[in-house]
Structures are given as C-alpha cells and as structure tokens.
Amino acid sequence: xIKILPAGKIREADTFTITNEPIASVDLxxxxxxxxxxxxxxxxPFGKSIxxxxxxxxxxxxxxxxxxxxxxxxxxxxxxxxxxxxxxxDDFLINLQRLQESGPSPIQDVLSGDELPVIEPDELVIDxxxxxxxxxxxxxxxxxxxxxxxxxxAVVIAIDISSGMFxxxxxxxxxGAIIQADYTLTFQFPKLSFFFAESEQYTGIWEVxxxxxxxxxxxxxxxxxxxxxxxxxAALLKPRxxxxxxxxxxxxxLVAGSYGKMGAAILAAKACMxxxxxxxxxxxxxxxxxxxxxxFPEAMVSIDEEQExxxxxxxxQPYNAIAIGPGIGTAEQTKTGLKLLIxxxxxxxxxxxxxxxxxxxxxxxxxxxxxGSILTPHPKEFERIASKSNNSLDRLELQQQFSAKYNVFVIxxxxxxxxxxxxxxxxxNPTGNPGMASGGSGDVLTGILLGLxxxxxxxxxxxxxxxxxxxxxxxxxxxxxxxxxxxASDIIDNLGKAFLKx
Length: 502
Known about the structure:
The chain is α/β, with parallel strands linked by helices. It is built from 18 helices and 18 strands. The chain is elongated and about 85 Å long.
C-alpha cells in the first residue's frame, strides 16, 4: 500500500531521512535523480538530443544531476537555467558546479524577456523547473517558456511533478501556465492530484520511483489516501483447503434483470461464480427463466412473481451475501421491492445500477441501508445519490463524507477507481483501462463483489480485492483484444488468469 502524502509531509520525509538515515541532502538528490536517469536510459533512443529546463531550487538540482549523468553516458544534452529567482538552493549550486566540471554539456541562462530556445519535435525535453515547493500559479515568467514547450511537439518528461501543478490541488491553466508532460517520474509518493481526469493532460503516464525515504517516517505518518498494490491484494486472498466443499464458500443471492436486460443478470452471475462463490441463486423476472437456465446452468434460479421485472424476495435467510441492481429497471413495483429488501436485510448489501438510480429518487432510504453496505456508482449515479460537485477533487471529498455519513463503502468507478470507507479513508485502485468503458463491465464488477462477500471476505476486503481483480482481468483482456474490441465477457474470461497471477 502506497501512502499519498501532501507536499508538506513529503518535505518532512526528506528532512527526516537526511537526519536519520543519515544521508546528506545532496546525496539524497543524487539518489533520486539517478533513478530518473536509469528510467530515461531504458526508454530513450540513444542519439536524440535532450533539452533540460532547470529552475533554481531542488527540482532544478535534480535536473542538473540528470544532465550530468546523461552527458557522461554520451547523450547530447543542453541545459537551460530558468532564472525566475536570484535565490538558488545549496544543492542546486553544488550540482551546477559538478555539471560544469564534468564535461562539455552546454549551459545557458534563460531570463525574462530572452529569446526562447528552439525545440525540435524529435527532441526530448526534461522539465525540472518547479517541484512540489511551488507556492503560487505560474502567471509571470516563465509562463511563456512553459507555453513554448507545450507547443513544441517534443516528448516531455516532468521530474516529480509538472511545473505549474500542485500536489493536492487540481490544475487550472486559467490561473497559470502548466507543463503538459507525456511522462511524470514522481518520487516515493504519488501526488493526490495525479488521480483525477483534470490532471491527465499535465501528468501523462506517471510512475512512482522509490527513492528510499526513511520507512519509520512513512510508517508513522497518517493519511486518508492510499494507492493499492498487487501485493496487498495477494495477501488478502484466502487459500482453499483440500477438504473444502461448496458450503464453505457461501450462498450468494443476485437480484438482477428485467425485460430486455437479462444480459446484465447473466454477466453478474457468471462473474460471481468465477470469483469463487460456492452457490449462487439469481432472482429474476419470470420471463427470464429460460434465458438464464440456458445461458448459465451453474446458477440456481428464483422466480419473481412478476413476469418482466423485480418486485420482491420473500426469504433472505439462506443467503450469505446479496447484490441487487444490474438491469432491474425502475418500475414502481421494483422500487417497492428494493425498499422492502433494504428494510429486511441485516447483512451488508451490494447495490449497483438501477438500485442506485432508485435510491437517487428516494434519498431518505440511504439512512436505512445495512451498515457496511457497498455502493458501486459511476460518476453520474453518484451525483444522483449524493449531489453535484464542481470537480473531481470536490467529488472525492463528497464521496468520503457520504461513506462516513451513511456508514457504507462507495466504489466510484472510473480510471483509478476510488474506494471510500465509513471511517473516511480512500483507496485508489491502479488496475483497469479505457477498453472497460462499455456496457456490462459494471455488472461484472457487481458479480465479483458478490462472489467475494459470499465467501466471508469483509466489506473492505471485498471492495479492494473486487475492484483490483475486475481491473486486472480487464488489463489481461486488453493485452489480448485491444481496447476497442474488449467487451464485458472478456473480463470474466480472464478472471481465472488474474487470480493465478496474484
């Protein structure tokens, strides 16, 4: 689990490491920049020229170390010192002297009003002007330089964070210039701003480089935000014993489907069983009986009194976990059936799709959800059950407040799916891809969650493992199918491989 810390805490981590490792600050800079150098050498074709733009602080110092290492390795580098301040950090000055003494790398000052250097589209630009220490938007010099770099067509790598961005705020180019990076190499911790759609054009593809900040500080520092890793999920999965039987893995109830939407029930049912539930009963409208029994014989079927939609479940006793929503529609009888289910159910529920749309029309019902229930909205569905928000960061804060207020888990689907808990913690999921943005993908997630919850996993583990497996299976499918050709069934087909790889 990677902690996501604000900029102030990251600076404290640097200071703690310098004091307690101990290590000189200039040597910690060498270590961090050395990892950037290693990454660039692995990715960068030899022979193309590199232009490095370095500020006068420690971010610029990182850039100077990278320039020295690249020049020593034979790369054609030009270094531009962006003099937005007369003050220079001590480590910047040390590394400037080292670069000057190391070889023939051209170094040129760039001052306000100077002619901007020519940047060819086939060159590489390294942005090391401003780091996380930026205190205000860039709306004076070097605003024009940032715009010039963005228009150049060159590939841009940002060191730690794109110049003009803030670690804990959404970027707003209306208030200041921001580098549009193709790649961001960030140190030790991802920045919260990286996880939102508004930041994508500025961060590009980002990667966390562990620079060895002191583990004692990291462990002792509290945060509400985490990035989940594969090892976290692998550690949560339960091994199966040789003498296990289907009764050991729970009996799940899936309430899904309506006239014209039986595919949702089939997808969720298949995903549930592929995730390891011992038994599954699908409660469906009467007209869906032949469809489900034919398409997926592994599921047992409970027939609703209504022919074309859900109206209620009479007996909840046999079931270890219940999910409702995929394809159920919003008929009046369905609304009544959902209300009764919420009232009668004592264990956590999984609610998706139309169940969320019904809750959005009846928000007073939210207070009656069983504690620990799991809601899986996409952004528009979340807006219906909560309220509108101005941007992704505001929506995340609203999501955390919503989980705490109603004592529920919310899985807000999308890139870096966010999972919020009743105690206000947020976990970002790293798996998944744009190919999963198609009909039925959410139904598959509901089935996965149901399968895990039925087996006795806690709601938190269900959310974390379910979101990770869903995205991981989607990534495995995309590697074979590509984004455009990926469909929901492909996610189910790759669940087994996802489990095996974990």
